[in-house]
Design a protein that fits this description.
alpha/beta; three-stranded mixed beta sheet; 13 strands; globular
Length: 795
């Protein structure tokens, strides 16, 4: 029994000398806990061996790798420097090839393309790289398990700690995310550790406790942008401590006891100042004590999302409207913006250059000064205004501030899906629902037994559990009000807390118990066995786990994205196609960054997101005049040698290649579609959500436009090619590809799949007649229109 919780002795005290108790002590001691945690680590790593990299993992690993190798912080600055560095440590020891740092994707900070090339296009062993990084990532989950064991032992004794550790280590959500190279488990670890450390510090201030608490908070702040929530959590803890009005021991230069709320509040304020200094120093240390995100001598800038965009500044067009110019000059400015920028309504590097051109060539000096003032004005919203202020004064490193602004910007509009409904502003029911259907029922039963023990025994360390309540209250309040409904993993830290609370159920296990103790103790044992059995039965498909309230085979109708389908099942696709040679032709629509080609998936690519492997439908190539085109086309076998647009300029011949007609057509066959693609919540570019009248009209129009390109007759294709500029053909063919796919999936959602692969990949067998009805017959049921999402992504 922990001496710090004497009020629990009536629940957990038992005769220490009996042989049974000696066995319990061996089973519940530190050695047993370490053995369990070591087994947990092995189980975590083993569960990922047969999974392709999930959507976010390559970018996180590439970020950490480049932080170490190049001291450059452009890749993935929004995702947490500390966990990324940990993921990358074993990758630094390998001799894998590294993408060049003079490429377009490096200069623009495009983590998706750079990491894709690193893992899949340079001949590296992507599976071995993933396993190494995941083994390091699993260390965070093991550390969090250790914290769960320690805190439960403090509150509920050795038996409670054993129960909590089993509940934690065999929780499907922990197992699904524990070894992935993402920041979710690391974030939970440091939230729990920082909250606990702060609470312990508030009970007695010592040098050791101040430093440990500050280091825990600092680690949290370099783990995830949501670390800002530790401020209201700390506020609740301080308020609870002051309301308790207990004496405050302080052991710094000497020992003293502070009484009275005002004096204690001053002491806590001084401690907060120390924390702020340590946290700021830690943040700077993780960025090499350098403000600039880009390493000296390394070219580049924020290309995909400029500072103006992530800070939420008004659009360029709205800023120019504030100059109150006459209509003729406004039209001239708009024409200049359109000529200089692909998307003049958004802040991109091209738009910034066009704005400078307008300023220098079309505005008078007073108007230039007014424009400069408007461009330098603080952002309208409070959070980006604070970030902008810190950026101007270089309070924190540039990459860290950019990450904070980036997360804020994209938290305001994010497509999400829940039970057939689509939204960009989130639902307050999203996380309560995911908790209901993805939490093991046995875990809920054990927490119920713990609550029953508290009621029957009328003993619970309420004061000691305040930090847990504060952490859950703040985190869940933010989660429920969030627009960011993309995955159950965002409430992962709920489960270590539930495991600790579940440890209180061990109160029913004591030798001198009455009949109710024996019945509830037996119930606890049965529920633990059921919890373990269910967990082992789901190995290794934990990302797709549902507790039975939703049938796993129908889970795709309830949740998608990282709650079910996060790009993890390409090996399952490869096995399916190998075991079913008759499933030809096969088409794959995949949600994820992993490479189907790397996994030898023999399927034609269907519209996918982000689809980094498909060649563009049109390809502009410059060659010297006189080049033998027959030899050239051997380098481009996917393109039609009979249909080439060309123009000569000086000694250069500009060629426009187009894919063969068959590449644009699809036929009956086996369609393997990621659940997240079936319920279209992809964002850039174009359509998302339910099929509607606007999409149907656009599909019919673009189908008619691109129809010549689907013909085998070269004369028809050659005649059509000059009718549009190349950029418009690219947009038309991309729109056709996406809208055709969305019309197809709108039909497929009206029926059940013929098979599922680990519940995340849906298999449909379609005849030519069925496909023709889906693509050319009457439209599927039309849903509501949805907003067009703003983006700086290039068209």
């Amino acid at each position: 029994m922990a001496a710090s919780a004497p009020f629990l002795r009536p629940l957990l005290t038992s005769p220490p000398a009996s042989p049974e108790e000696s066995g319990w002590r061996r089973l519940t001691g530190p050695t047993a806990a370490m053995v369990l945690l070591a087994a947990f680590w092995g189980f975590l790593v083993a569960s990922t061996r047969d999974l392709s990299l999930t959507f976010d993992e390559p970018g996180h690993a590439a970020g950490g790798f480049t932080y170490w190798k190049f001291q450059d912080y452009r890749l993935d600055p929004e995702s947490g420097n500390l966990p990324q560095r940990v993921f990358a440590l074993p990758l630094l020891a390998r001799r894998d090839r590294t993408p060049a740092t003079d490429s377009a994707e490096w200069r623009s900070g495009d983590k998706w393309v750079w990491s894709y090339r690193w893992f899949y296009q340079l001949g590296n062993d992507a599976a071995a790289m993933a396993l190494a990084g995941r083994a390091a990532a699993a260390g965070f989950a093991v550390a969090l398990g250790g914290v769960v064991w320690l805190w439960t032992r403090r509150h509920f004794g050795r038996r409670g700690a054993l129960v909590a550790l089993v509940l934690y280590a065999l929780n499907p959500t922990i197992l699904a995310n524990g070894a992935l190279m993402t920041a979710d488990v690391a974030c939970a670890l440091f939230f729990v550790t920082a909250t606990w450390a702060l609470w312990v510090l508030l009970q007695r201030i010592t040098v050791t406790r101040v430093l440990l608490s500050a280091l825990a908070v600092g680690a949290l702040c370099v783990t995830k942008a949501s670390a800002v929530l530790i401020v209201p959590i700390a506020g609740i803890l301080v308020a609870a401590r002051l309301l308790a009005n207990r004496p405050l021991p302080i052991h710094l230069l000497g020992a003293r006891t502070v009484t009275g709320r005002p004096r204690q509040a001053l002491a806590f304020a001084a401690v907060a100042g120390v924390h702020a200094a340590v946290v700021i120093a830690m943040i700077w240390s993780f960025y090499g004590f350098r403000y600039a995100a880009f390493a000296p001598g390394q070219p580049g800038g924020w290309q995909a999302d400029t500072w103006e965009f992530v800070l939420g500044r008004p659009s360029p067009q709205s800023i120019f409207r504030q100059l109150e110019l006459d209509p003729a000059r406004r039209q001239q400015i708009e024409q200049t913006l359109e000529q200089g920028a692909e998307r003049p309504e958004h802040w991109t590097p091209a738009t910034l250059a066009a704005v400078r051109t307008v300023r220098d060539t079309l505005l008078q000096p007073p108007e230039q000064q007014r424009l400069d003032a408007l461009l330098a004005a603080p952002p309208p919203a409070a959070w980006p205004r604070l970030v902008g202020w810190m950026r101007t004064r270089r309070v924190l490193p540039e990459a860290y501030l950019y990450g904070l602004a980036y997360v804020w910007r994209y938290a305001h509009a994010r497509p999400a899906f829940l039970n057939g409904a689509f939204t960009i502003h989130g639902s307050p029911w999203f996380f309560p629902y995911t908790f209901l259907v993805k939490t093991p029922l046995a875990l809920l039963g054990i927490v119920g037994l713990a609550a029953l023990a508290a009621v029957i025994r009328r003993r619970l360390p309420w004061y000691e559990l305040i930090p847990w309540g504060a952490l859950l209250a703040v985190y869940w309040t933010v989660a429920v009000s969030s627009h960011f409904n993309i995955g159950h993993r965002h409430i992962l830290l709920t489960y270590p807390i539930l495991a600790v609370l579940g440890g209180a159920a061990a109160a029913w296990w004591h030798p001198a118990g009455r009949r109710m103790d024996r019945v509830c103790g037996a119930g606890l044992a049965l529920l633990l066995v059921a919890h373990a059995a269910e967990s082992f039965a789901w190995f290794p498909r934990y990302l797709a786990y549902f507790n039975g309230l939703v049938a796993p085979s129908r889970a795709y109708r309830h949740l998608v994205d990282s709650s079910l389908d996060w790009g993890q099942d390409l090996p399952a696709v490869q096995r399916f196609l190998t075991e079913h040679p008759s499933a030809r032709p096969a088409y794959l629509s995949f949600f994820g960054i992993a490479s189907p080609a790397y996994y030898r998936v023999e399927a034609r690519p269907l519209y996918s997101f982000p689809d980094l492997e498909q060649l563009p439908p049109l390809n502009a190539v410059d060659v010297p005049i006189g080049t033998d085109l027959r030899d050239l086309m051997k380098t481009y076998p996917a393109y039609d040698p009979a249909v080439i647009g060309q123009a000569d300029e000086a000694s250069v011949r500009h060629l426009l290649l187009i894919k063969k007609a068959a590449a644009f057509r699809i036929t009956g066959g086996t369609y393997l579609i990621s659940a997240t693609m079936l319920q279209p919540v992809t964002t850039w570019p174009g359509a998302w959500g339910p099929w509607n009248a606007r999409y149907e009209e656009g599909y019919q129009a673009v189908s008619k436009l691109v129809e010549p390109m689907l013909q085998d007759d070269p004369a028809v294709r050659r005649a059509a090619l000059p009718q549009l500029p190349p950029a418009q053909w690219l947009r038309a063919l991309a729109d056709f590809d996406q809208l055709r796919f969305m019309r197809l999936t709108a039909f497929l959602r009206q029926r059940e799949p013929d098979d599922t692969l680990n519940y995340s990949i849906l298999v449909y067998r379609l005849s030519d007649a069925e496909l023709d009805r889906a693509l050319h017959g009457p439209p599927p049921p039309l849903g509501p229109d949805v907003p067009t999402l703003p983006s700086t992504r290039p068209p």
